[in-house]
Amino acid sequence: MSTVEVVLHDVHTIKACAELDTSNGISLEPVEAGEFTPEISFRFLAEKDAEHPATRMGVITVAGDTASGRFEVEVAGVFTMPDPGALPEPENRMVVGHALNLLFPFVRAEIRDITARVLKASLVAPPMDFTQGDVTEVRD
Predict the structure, then answer these.
(1) What is the spatial distance between Cα 45 and Cα 33, in angstroms, rounded to a whole number?
(2) How many CB atoms are closer than 10 A to CB 50?
(3) Are 54 and 82 in contact (CB under 8 A)?
(4) How far is Cα 76 from Cα 74, in angstroms, rounded to an integer?
(5) What is the pLDDT of residues 20-60, one digit of tens each?
């Protein structure tokens, strides 16, 4: 398998929201967030730039429940990379994994921020290696 370069050029937060669970009343005290077991999906947007055919926009969505409520974060990145759909499956997974590894630190920061502000429980997502297949890719 040849080495394929993936470069992240730009990052945009599309969504960062959380809903506090008030079923047991409202408290201003910090609560334990619990274990990080999110739902993670990733997709490349179908539109390609005719002037820059190696440019792709990928969107990662991470959502999950905590002891104090639910959160959802969606972050988009603009990459220079080969078209994953044109690669054989092992290279495709590796390219997508590298793209996610570059984008996930931004997702982690958004998760920490939104859960601290809304859920009163700063949730720190662990580092993940997406080249090992930790994500579901959604194809357009």
Answers:
(1) 32
(2) 6
(3) yes
(4) 7
(5) 887 876 655 555 555 667 898 998 886 666 677 788 899 99
CA neighbours closer than 13 Å in the CB half-sphere of residue 120: 11
CA distances from 53 to 63, 93, 103 (A): 31, 20, 20
Residue 115 CA: distances (Å) to CA of 11, 16, 26: 20, 9, 15
Task: Supply the Cα-derived Rg of the chain in whole angstroms.
Answer: 17
- At 38, list the tokens: 């999110």
Dihedral sign, CA of 73, 74, 80, 86? positive
DSSP string, 80-135: E---GGGS-HHHHHHHHHHHHHHHHHHHHHHHHHHIIIIISS---PPP--GGGS-S
pTM of structure: 0.80
From residue 56, how far is each of 66, 105, 110, 121 by CA, in Å? 33, 19, 22, 34
- Our measurement of the distance from residue 9's CA atom to the centroid of its chain's CA atoms, rounded to an integer in Å, reads 16
- Name residue, tokens 């662990």: 126
